[in-house]
Design goal:
five-stranded antiparallel beta sheet, 5 strands, alpha+beta, elongated, about 120 residues, about 25% strand
Length: about 120
């Protein structure tokens, strides 16, 4: 059975003044199932280091560590509150904030299996 899910692209933007970013992951929420799942690029991601050649590679690794910890915390929280509250939590997680890691626009998707959709979005 298909379920309505929401997803957002995780972006790394170390230099706000240029607005250049690299997509480094995906977060997906299936509110009715109380499920929030995510997939992030490796902490040693040559594409990011090559794109931002004047960037210390440690910044990217540290930023990914922090966002991964936050996503794991929210993942556990969403599991306790399926339904509308899970969707509200996802909206709060992905709302626009200033920082080196942020989320793209939230998009809906009808999915059979959230994990398969996450993998498809990540590979795309």
């Amino acid at each position: 059975m298909r379920t309505l899910s929401l997803y957002a692209i995780v972006r790394f933007m170390p230099f706000a003044e240029t607005q250049e970013f690299a997509n480094v992951g995906v977060v997906l929420c299936a509110p009715d199932q109380g499920k929030l799942i995510f997939k992030l690029a490796r902490k040693r991601f040559a594409r990011v280091n090559n794109f931002f050649d004047d960037l210390d590679g440690k910044l990217y690794a540290q930023a990914l560590t922090v966002i991964e910890q936050e996503l794991k915390r929210v993942e556990a929280y969403v599991a306790k509150y399926p339904g509308e509250k899970a969707a509200l939590i996802f909206d709060e997680l992905t709302r626009h904030r200033e920082g080196v890691v942020y989320f793209g626009n939230t998009r809906p998707a009808l999915v059979d299996t959230p994990a398969a959709k996450l993998e498809q979005l990540f590979e795309h």
